[in-house]
Amino acid sequence: MPRQSDQQIFAKLKGLLRIAAARNLQDLWHTSRQALARFKAGECRTCLAAPATNTDLAVAP
Q: Which residues contact 42 (CB under 8 A, 6 or more apart)?
């Protein structure tokens, strides 16, 4: 199960992308850059610093 902070961050990103409603790949990349710029450094730092509880997404060596 994902951590609560993961769920909150992805929910925020998903909401921002949904509002923009990009209709092609170029617009989606542009919208993604704009959306990610709205995240605060502390928000990302907290999420990335927390230990992972779901190893299903781990990259194999």
A: none
In angstroms, the CA 15 to CA 39 distance is 13
- The token duo for 57 is 């997404």
Nearest to 30 by CA among 40, 13, 17: 17
Write the pLDDT tens digit of every residue in 7-57.
Answer: 788 888 888 888 888 889 999 899 888 888 888 887 777 776 765 555 555
Q: Which of 44, 53, 51 is nearest to 1 (CA)?
A: 53
